[in-house]
């Protein structure tokens, strides 16, 4: 749950000496105001769930003599904090100001006077509550966010007490004494409670993971690389944004370069994705062998003109059929090195460096290597985001991918001369067929997983040199339990 609260609050530091991030997020005032709802909910649940200390005392009262009293089981029944302002506290964190807040508390009371013990319940109505708190936000050495109550001022303008039960009709005549004591106690207690709640939150953050497992071989490091930056009307957070293999030493082949987010009108959230982020994923997928595929004839669509057997290939490589008449082939497709992604105003460019090794499947099922081709291709892609109304997904990714350039060259051959032109044409057709199916998939859209019941509103992807920018508003559907607070 943390990052949802934290995102509006966190920011990054773009300055000389700062480390370069793979991902950069920016939240503006509009996003922060949306985050105010969470902030208030958090304050409410903090106050509501906190056991407020019991109050014990003694007082000399007219007619009653020395009165010993106790107020126990104090509970907040209603909390009114609607008149509140949230803003960024420059260079520090987030500033929450509440005016004209109201609280309705219930408690049990007990009295001991000259005339013996008495007891019942009591309603305490607090009004004209004002609160001004600054939540400081930074990062620790491990890149986890750190929060603290940087500033707090709180006060109660008015407090009324009404007793029920026992001889209430009598005590209600003398409530003003108690009201003064309670108001003073609460005025002292409020900021202490805020600080305690913030400390609890800080403890949760200290235990948080700054990486998330994507699948069995990929984990994403999203630790903060710089101290969050808080401006007057926006905050920025720099995340590492690097993929790595769980439990394996990191391989730092690329270095992320520093980047600035372009000015964007008024989306709540801007997410800057660097080439480093994409290439770090590509490198991991390459290293773990996820980009290797073995293809046999059964996997080729029916009706495709070229079949994977030596007879079919005999037209191009006569020697192949002569050496291995009427035998099936296996094709091992793989990457020679990791694909390279780059971001440009016209879209995502991807370079693949592939190899195709063709082997004959011998009758005893072992493979006889026949030849190897090197295949280099350049692709471009355009991507879009679409909102999804059902709660099962944050949104949908759509797009198109096109082949720009394609080049085949011979690596080695155990079967003599290979007619390259024909193979190149055949492979181009194969790639186009592959692209058709990829584009069909991308046209329908890839449903992105739901993250904490947040969905994208008016999401947009804009491409810049070296940067993919996602600009979006967010909508959060809280679970029923939080709504009831
Ligand atoms: C509030 O406190 C109760 C018991 O003291 C506990 O069961 C409940 O989980 C707490 N709720 C939250 C939101 O912390
Ligand atoms: C916090 O907000 C209040 C009200 O908008 C403002 O008066 C105060 O100066 C702010 N404090 C900081 C530290 O930004
Ligand atoms: C953090 O990650 C470790 C290992 O991946 C896991 O055992 C632990 O439960 C995670 N902690 C939290 C708070 O998610
Ligand atoms: C492909 O086949 C080769 C040789 O049979 C084998 O070593 C390799 O593990 C296979 N690769 C995949 C991804 O199945
Ligand atoms: C399979 O047959 C080929 C030739 O027919 C032979 O060279 C090879 O050793 C055999 N492999 C196995 C595992 O029997
Ligand atoms: C891919 O594009 C780059 C320039 O962007 C060019 O240098 C390279 O030759 C191209 N490769 C192929 C296989 O088209
Ligand atoms: C998401 O919404 C569902 C349905 O309202 C709720 O059961 C679930 O707890 C929510 N999850 C989070 C993380 O808010």
TrEMBL record:
Name of the featured protein: Bactericidal permeability-increasing protein
InterPro entries assigned: Bactericidal_perm-incr_a/b_dom, BPI/LBP, BPI/LBP/Plunc, Lipid-bd_serum_glycop_C, Lipid-bd_serum_glycop_N
SMART domains membership: BPI1, BPI2
Keywords from the UniProt entry: Antibiotic, Antimicrobial, Disulfide bond, Glycoprotein, Immunity, Innate immunity, Secreted, Signal
Disulphide linkage map: 152-191
Span of domain Lipid-binding serum glycoprotein N-terminal: 26-248
Every Lipid-binding serum glycoprotein C-terminal domain range: 263-472
One Gene Ontology term of the molecular function aspect: lipopolysaccharide binding
Residues annotated as signal peptide: 1-18
Source species of the chain: Eublepharis macularius
Gene Ontology BP term (one): innate immune response
Subunit structure: Monomer. Homodimer; disulfide-linked.
Entry function: The cytotoxic action of BPI is limited to many species of Gram-negative bacteria; this specificity may be explained by a strong affinity of the very basic N-terminal half for the negatively charged lipopolysaccharides that are unique to the Gram-negative bacterial outer envelope.
Family of this protein: Belongs to the BPI/LBP/Plunc superfamily. BPI/LBP family.
One Gene Ontology term, aspect cellular component: extracellular space
Main location per the UniProt record: secreted
Keyword Secreted found: yes
Domain text: The N-terminal region may be exposed to the interior of the granule, whereas the C-terminal portion may be embedded in the membrane. During phagocytosis and degranulation, proteases may be released and activated and cleave BPI at the junction of the N- and C-terminal portions of the molecule, providing controlled release of the N-terminal antibacterial fragment when bacteria are ingested. The N- and C-terminal barrels adopt an identical fold despite having only 13% of conserved residues.
Location within or outside the cell: Secreted
Name of encoding gene: LOC129329967
Glycoprotein keyword on record: yes
């Amino acid at each position: 749950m943390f990052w949802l609260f934290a995102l509006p609050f966190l920011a990054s530091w773009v300055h000389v000496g700062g480390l370069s991030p793979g991902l950069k997020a920016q939240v503006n005032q509009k996003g922060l105001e949306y985050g105010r709802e969470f902030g208030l909910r958090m304050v409410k649940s903090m106050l509501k769930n906190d056991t407020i200390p019991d109050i014990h005392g003694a007082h000399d009262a007219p007619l009653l003599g020395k009165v010993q009293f106790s107020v126990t089981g104090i509970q907040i029944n209603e909390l009114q904090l609607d008149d509140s302002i949230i803003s960024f506290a420059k260079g520090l964190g987030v500033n929450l100001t509440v005016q004209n807040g109201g609280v309705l508390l219930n408690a049990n009371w007990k009295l001991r006077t000259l005339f013996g013990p008495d007891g019942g319940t009591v309603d305490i109505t607090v009004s004209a509550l004002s609160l001004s708190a600054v939540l400081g936000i930074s990062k620790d050495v491990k890149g986890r966010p750190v929060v603290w109550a940087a500033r707090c001022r709180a006060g109660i303008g008015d407090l009324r007490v009404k007793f029920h039960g026992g001889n209430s009709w009598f005590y209600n005549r003398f409530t003003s004494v108690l009201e003064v004591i309670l108001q003073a106690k609460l005025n002292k207690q409020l900021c202490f409670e805020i600080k305690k709640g913030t400390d609890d939150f800080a403890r949760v953050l200290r235990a948080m993971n700054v990486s998330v497992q994507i699948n069995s071989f990929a984990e994403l490091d999203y630790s903060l690389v710089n101290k969050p930056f808080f401006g007057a009307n926006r905050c920025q957070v720099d995340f590492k944004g690097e993929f790595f293999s769980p439990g394996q030493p990191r391989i730092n082949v690329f270095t992320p370069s520093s980047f600035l987010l372009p000015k964007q009108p008024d989306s709540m959230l801007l997410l800057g994705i660097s080439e480093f982020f994409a290439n770090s994923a590509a490198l991991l997928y390459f290293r773990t062998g996820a980009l290797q595929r073995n293809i046999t004839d059964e996997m080729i669509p029916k009706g495709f003109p070229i079949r994977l057997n030596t007879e079919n290939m005999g037209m191009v490589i006569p020697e192949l059929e002569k050496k291995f008449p009427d035998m099936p082939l296996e094709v091992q497709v793989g990457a020679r090195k990791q694909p390279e992604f780059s971001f440009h105003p016209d879209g995502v460019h991807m370079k693949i460096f592939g190899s195709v090794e063709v082997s004959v499947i011998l009758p005893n099922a072992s493979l006889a290597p026949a030849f190897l081709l090197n295949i280099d291709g350049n692709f471009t892609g355009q991507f879009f985001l679409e909102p999804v109304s059902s709660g099962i997904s944050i949104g949908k990714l759509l797009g198109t991918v096109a082949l720009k350039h394609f080049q085949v060259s011979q690596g080695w051959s155990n079967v003599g001369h290979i007619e390259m032109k024909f193979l190149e044409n055949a492979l181009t057709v194969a790639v186009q067929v592959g692209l058709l199916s990829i584009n069909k998939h991308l046209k329908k859209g890839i449903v992105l997983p739901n993250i904490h019941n947040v969905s994208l509103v008016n999401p947009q992807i804009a491409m810049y040199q070296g940067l993919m920018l996602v600009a979006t508003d967010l909508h959060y559907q809280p679970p029923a339990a939080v709504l009831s607070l």
